[in-house]
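Problem 12. The chain below contains 408 residues. Write out its predicted structure in token notation.
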Amino acid sequence: MSRRTKVVHIITRLDMGGSAQNTLLSCLGLDPALYSVTLVKGSTEESNMTREEEERLERYLASARRQGVTTITVPTLVRRISLWNDLRAFLGILRHLRRLRPDIIHTHTSKAGLLGRLAAWLARVPVVVHTPHGHVFYGHFGSTLSRFFLLVERMLSRITDHLVALSPGEAEDYMELAVMPPHKISVIPSGIDLRRFAAARVDRLRKRRELGLPPSALAVGFVGWLLPIKGLSFLVRAMPGILARHPESFLVVVGKGDEEVRLRSLADSLGLNGRVLFLGWRPDVDEILPCLDLLVLPSLNEGMGRVLVEAMAAGVPIVASRTGGVPDLVWDGQNGLLVPPADSGALEQAISQLFRDEPGRRRMAAKGKKVCGQYSAQDMVEQISNLYSVLQERLWLHRPSGAILAPN
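Solution.
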């Protein structure tokens, strides 16, 4: 019997965000008969998780451990830049890789991608895979810093065997910006537990009452991190115009982040008191989505947007920015409407258009339910496993003649 392939996944911050859920599902889904999986993660202190979030995450990790996944925490692996902590995190990752001697390292997100790939190069890991979960080449920082990160990623591409993009749009950015050649990029969408959202049984009136929504309200919803890159301020600015046309409108914001205080202040300054509901992080997104009339994702840059698939599975039409990988999921006029990023006027117009067109909303919701089937967690893991097999086979075929692979 051949030995199992050793895979190490590395992620900066393991919380209940999209990239973390993607990574956890990847670790949980890989066949334990074929793979020995280790998850290296940074500290979660930056996430400021609620007790509910911590309990949900611990359930995921307990399930992973029952399936044989080993978890390792590197406390100094954090998102914020700190040369001292970053050096210590790099040395810690390098030490673990030299001890584990994996066949494949798969890094996730920017900081773990930088430190993990450099450590893998020094530790002579045979196969290095990276999933950026959305790049930082535009939308996040100013032009100077964006160019710097682009140059860093171009250098790292030389020690990266393969890059996993979450959407064709994200893959095109990497090719057009000369970061990775086409033959070293695969598109594997982030997997979603579709059954959780498609099978949710919700008493809509009762749930709306619990959320603070009147029965007749037209509810615009946002689900995600409250960060500048998500463009939520443009949606808040669109609300006065929407309310002028549709006085029964409400904006429901599910999530947390650094922008919350500023967004609350913005809503107050626009006279939206009581019409913007900030719910914080919620474990019941599968029950909240069916209570919405529209899901809006006004991001300035987005690798994929997992919540778009969740909304489709829940039967909710979408308005979203035409940026990054979003147009690969939202087909303008079919399962939603696309608008230019950073354009409150366009958001107002698109939302009002769908509020006036109830048959159109039902048609888009039905189309979304058909589209979302290709984004299951099972499909994602199967594609990742196939990619690992191809990369290992390619390594075996191209090893020096007569070379013997050292046992692990």
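Discussion. Residues 130 and 350 are 36 Å apart (CA to CA). Students who got a different answer should revisit the alignment rule from Section 12.3.
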